[in-house]
Design brief:
With about 550 residues, this protein is of the alpha/beta class. The chain has 17 helices and 22 strands. The protein folds into four domains: about 110 residues, PriA, 3(prime) DNA-binding domain (GIY-YIG endonuclease), CATH 3.40.1440; about 70 residues; about 70 residues; about 180 residues, P-loop containing nucleotide triphosphate hydrolases (Rossmann fold), CATH 3.40.50.300. The strands form six sheets. A seven-stranded parallel β-sheet has the order 13-14-12-15-18-11-19, sandwiched between helices. Helix 1 packs across helix 2, helix 5 crosses helix 6 and helix 11 packs parallel to helix 12. The relative contact order is 0.08.
Length: about 550
């Protein structure tokens, strides 16, 4: 058997690798592996297919080096989704999977420079010129430096190009060599120990067992299952390690590993833990989303304060009762804790959170909780779209109009649009919610591609703030007087607010003193020679400036 492996590099197509005998009965589609890859040494790859007959000469095929995580990172349904994303957004499949999986289960391999025995002999015999000799001396004194690290170490004595030429010369002559070094190990795994035979067999299998070995066997027997090695060391001291090694040698104990999924959310639950009474509009929207045969996309258009979140919670409750899973996307990290608190108050610790504000260890633990089925609800930013769910029953995109759902580096994608695709593949409802829907979503609702659900009223008695538009061009101005900066209605509203002891925020969306400087005689104005737009007067700095290209010119009245 051979494996088709997608590399986490901007290259087209998967690459074929041989499956070593040690992995022949373990390797599956979805596994993250470490593979040799050309002059780069080693790369992280993702198994996307298993084949029997390669298209190239088997003698040229290199074997997979090792597994990076014992459990597959994705299943066949997720792989099909990744292929769709790669095809639609014209991105390499390996880069899409790299974007979708936690960085903590991937390996980082760098090439470092090591001296050879011939190189040490050549330096001892003074066979090197001054610059190569200086570089080789640094390599011998500090083996394991990367090319960049070596240049940095010698930057006070040699130019970067001199170091590079010297290194190439040393490698050609066999006086130094590049080797691959893997940084770090599999993260988020905890070593464990378990008793595999009755404790009474200790005397027969280890007749000379001391007090320490007996204490370890007793602790493992009381636990009744695997115990974390760190817990044993904390309770009985570091000598436990040697005792476990001896117990493993006589077949009493098996040392293993488990995934670390113990990280809990720190955000306190917020809001009521029991469902609130819904008004008519909310109940109508909830019934449409949770209907037995509900599929497709719903645009939930509700004014601010209309109770959209309570609709989400009710739909999530119904979905969980049916044995399926829930994904809730929010546009920004700052909104995540509040929504997570509301969901935790309702659903307890079965809620996972995924966003870039978490540490790598915490994010990996949350991702693994979802993969193991411990967390059936995930709340997070756009990257949560790729959470390893096996049976999604509801996808919610809150504030669907927000530009933060667009990924603008690496693999470019729009999480809102992909949420719709993901819902279709899981045959579940997708709810796009907003008080100000995006133009394309509203158009899709008007043309009945999406079902439109409206929440036109606030769920609480508090009234919607009144909005009044004042046209400054209609304000009467006496001849010779300048037009006022604020309309009289604005000034009166501010005075009333201050008199009542309140506060106000005034947003003024104009930079500069005047957006147009015009000659009173001929009527011409200052225009930017680069952009062709009028230049803005900054009175205090006595300059006119183009706010597109930044061009500035002195201004004299």
């Amino acid at each position: 058997m051979y494996a088709q492996v997608a590399i986490a590099r901007p290259v087209t197509g998967p690459f074929t690798y041989a499956i070593p005998s040690a992995l022949s009965d373990r390797l599956a589609v979805g596994h993250v592996v470490l593979v040799p890859f050309g002059s780069r040494g080693a790369e992280t790859g993702f198994v996307v297919d298993l084949i029997g007959e390669p298209e190239v000469d088997p003698a040229r095929i290199k074997p997979i080096w090792r597994l990076l995580d014992p459990e597959p990172a994705f299943d066949a349904r997720q792989l099909d989704f990744f292929r769709w994303v790669a095809d639609y957004y014209l991105a390499p499949l390996g880069m899409v999977i790299h974007t979708a999986t936690p960085s903590e289960i991937k390996a980082r391999v760098v090439q470092v420079l090591q001296p050879t025995e011939d190189g040490v002999e050549a330096l001892t015999a003074s066979l090197l010129d001054a610059v190569p000799g200086l570089v080789l001396r640094e390599v011998i004194s500090r083996p394991g430096l990367t090319r960049r690290g070596l240049v940095r170490r010698l930057e006070s004595e040699l130019r970067g190009e001199e170091v590079v030429r010297a290194v190439d010369s040393l490698v050609r002559r066999g006086w130094a060599e590049w080797i691959d070094r893997e940084l770090g190990e599999i993260k988020g795994r905890v070593r464990t120990a378990a008793l595999v035979v009755p404790p009474e067999e200790l005397s027969s299998r280890a007749p000379h067992a001391g007090r320490r070995m007996k204490a370890v066997v007793e602790a493992l027997a009381d636990a009744g299952g695997p115990v974390d090695l760190a817990e044993l060391v904390s309770a009985q001291g570091d000598t436990v390690r040697a005792a476990l090694t001896r117990l493993e040698a006589v077949g009493l104990v098996v040392l293993g590993e488990r995934e670390d999924r113990d990280v809990l959310l720190e955000a306190p639950p917020l809001g009521p833990s029991v469902p609130l009474l819904l008004n008519g509009d909310q109940q109508k929207a909830l019934d449409a989303i949770t209907a037995e045969d509900a599929q497709g996309t719903f645009l939930l258009h509700g004014v601010t304060g209309s109770g959209k979140t309570e609709v989400f919670l009710g739909a999530a409750r119904c979905t969980l009762d049916r044995g399926r899973q829930v994904l809730v996307l929010v546009p920004e990290i700052g909104l995540t804790p509040q929504l997570v608190g509301r969901f935790r108050a309702r659903f307890g610790d079965g809620v996972a959170v995924l966003h870039s504000g978490l540490t790598g260890r915490d994010r990996l633990a949350q991702w693994r909780r979802i993969r193991a089925g411990e967390a059936r609800v995930a709340v997070g930013a756009r990257s949560a779209l790729f959470a390893p769910f096996g049976d999604l029953g509801l996808v919610v995109v809150d504030e669907e109009h927000d530009d933060s759902y667009k990924q603008d580096e690496g693999v470019r994608y729009n999480a809102r649009d992909l949420a719709v695709v993901l819902g279709r593949r899981h045959r579940c409802p997708v709810v796009l919610a907003s008080a100000t829907p995006s133009m394309e979503s509203f158009y899709n609702a008007q043309t009945e591609r999406y079902a439109l659900l409206r929440l036109p009223h606030r769920a609480t008695p508090r009234p919607v703030p009144e909005i009044e538009l004042v046209d400054l061009t209609e304000v009467e101005v006496l001849q010779g007087e300048a037009r006022p900066l604020f309309a009289p209605e604005v000034v009166d509203a501010l005075r009333e607010t201050f008199a009542a002891g309140g506060q106000a925020i005034v947003l003024y969306n104009r930079r500069g003193y005047a957006t147009l400087v015009q000659c009173t005689s001929c009527g011409s104005s200052y225009e930017c020679p680069n952009c062709g737009i009028t230049m803005t007067l900054h009175r205090s700095a006595r300059v006119i400036s183009c706010h597109y290209c930044g061009l500035k010119r002195p201004y004299q009245r």
